Structures are given as C-alpha cells and as structure tokens.
Amino acid sequence: MDLLIFLLLLASPVALAKSSPTVPAIFTFGDSIFDAGNNHYKKNCTAQADFPPYGSSFFHRPTGRFTNGRTVADFISQFVGLPLQKPFLELKIQILNGTLKRFPSNGINFASAGSGLLFDTNKEMGVTPIQTQLQQFQTLVEQNQIEKTPIQESLFLLESGSNDIFNYFSPFQTPTLSPDAYVNAMLDQVNKTIEQIYKLGARRIAFFSLGPVGCVPARALLPNAPTGKCFGKMNAMAKKYNTRLEDIVNIVPTKYPGAIAVFGAVYGITNRFQTFPARYGFSDVSNACCGYGTLGGLMQCGREGYKICNNPNKFLFWDFYHPTERTYHLMSKALWNGNKNEIRPFSLMALATNNITF
User: Fold this and answer.
1) Separation between Cα atoms, residue 296 and residue 306, nearest integer Å
2) What is the set of active-site residues?
3) Tens-digit pLDDT profile for residues 131-158
C-alpha cells in the first residue's frame, strides 16, 4: 500500500504537467460581455459602466466592466492561470505616456461594450466596432508591438451580435433588411473576422453564441416586447444566428489548416439557469438586480434614482442588459470544462491544454 501511494505521488506531477494550460496569452474581441474597460478610455463614448455600483462585488470599484465583478473573459484567464488582460486603450495610453514600455505578454482585451458585428451598430454612442478592434490588433502585429511567435499558441475569444439583434427591434430604427438578410450580414462579418485573425496567426479560436437576448430586462424599453415572458421574435433571431455560427465554427479546421475552433453554447447554458433557477442558486432570473422600473429594465444601474438588490448572487441579471458576476462564473465553468451541450466539439480546457479528442 505504501509503495502504491509512493507511485501515485510520483506520477501526479507528470499528470498535472500534461493537463496544465499551454496558453501564453488571451486576445479578446467583442462587446460588453467581455469589455474590461475600453469604453472608459474613449472620451466620446456614452456606453459606460465606470461609476458605482459597477465592480462592487469583486474589484470594489468601477473598472468599466458592465457587471458587479468579473466577466467571462476574466474567469477564463484565471482558469488558464494568467493575469487578467487589460483594455487595449488603457495600455495604449500607458505606452504613449511612457509608463509602460511594451504591451504585456499575457494578451490584450479589445472588446467594446455596445458594439456589434455590423459596423454601424450603436455608432452614435462612440463604441469601437469589431472591425476596428481587429484593426487595432492587426496594427500591433504588423508593427511588431506584440510578439508574433506566441500568437499561434494563444487563445482567441470572440463574442458579438447581441447589440445588433436588440437594435433590430428598436423603435428608433427602421430595419432595411429582412431578419434573414440581417443575420446573413452578421455572419459575413464572422467569416471576415476568422479570416483576418487566422492570417495574423490565430490558431486556437473560441466563438461564443448569443444568449437569449429577448430575455434581458431592457426589453421593457421596447414598445412591442412582452414583459411577462421573453421576447420570442428576438430570441428566434438569436437562435437562427447561433445555428449558422456553429456551422461556420465546425468548418474552421477544414477551411483554415492548423486552426481549431470551439462553439460555446451560451444560449443553452443561460436557458438552463432560467429553467432550473433553484438548481443553480438563483431566486430571480427575470429582473435586474440593479436598475429601475419594470423588470429593473427602464434605467441603467447607477443612474440617478436606481435601486439595487440585497444579494446579487441570487440574480441572473445584474443590470438591464448584463448578467451578474455569479452568472458569468457559472457560465465560465461550463465553457471551461463542460459537456458537449455546453461547448463543442471540446471544452476550452481541452483547447488550452492541447488535450483534444473529437
């Protein structure tokens, strides 16, 4: 028995070494689900979360993240064992003023809250569209401001499209495209995104689906949306996009030699939280913890007159659009080491450790 224990102890460091993530950096693109504070550094941007009580549960101060703590990108970075990635625009300022000599080796967060796959989505708010985010990354690579060698081993996280679909139903905009044509335009940008980052060296790519956008408390702002249930038309559009997105992800290894990609089924994960709230420790999966009015969806958290719940951990939604840190944590765990109902064809942990089996 003593010999068996000795052999197990001797073997365990080897086993750990084989399963340790081999990701040197994470590069993140998308919207508020990922934004670590880029919008804060844009003076003309009105999509902001740089005021209390944002950040109150973990950072104990606002960081520009649109939740009460960490985002999915933050949790994935912690699972990998890397320091949290800083916003590109913060790093750029530090480089320009000399407080930072070079961009950090653990990756960069380019995401901008309010942005979409379509260039004009929330353009009037001064957000950074994904096309510009990709150009920012491309410039760094081409100007040798970040090391090219580790890029192929790095993890690329991409999530965008919720704002495009929500805006399609906005009373302030008259759609010029049919729902199908609109989704096609979004997917065209997905294809362009993959092609662009692949040319720049990306080989480990994770695309996250849209969640049930029609369930966000902010639907109370839309005159034709129900408040007693989710907005079915909006969710149907999100599901159509997700199905087509997964088709694109599935052909990445064939279309782009050497690249591997995974599809994070965020819609299904979130839907389970809504269907079985008690199982996941939620007491409210409809209302915003922080906001005002119907569903807490008529006012942004932190604005004059807002109300806040006693325990954000019991709520699925933090504010009128965004999940709580606890929701993000549960979601991140499912994406990191979940089954094929949650992420496929394999988990983020498998992608990060090169432990890939189809």
Assistant:
1) 9
2) 32, 319, 322
3) 999 999 999 999 999 999 999 999 999 9
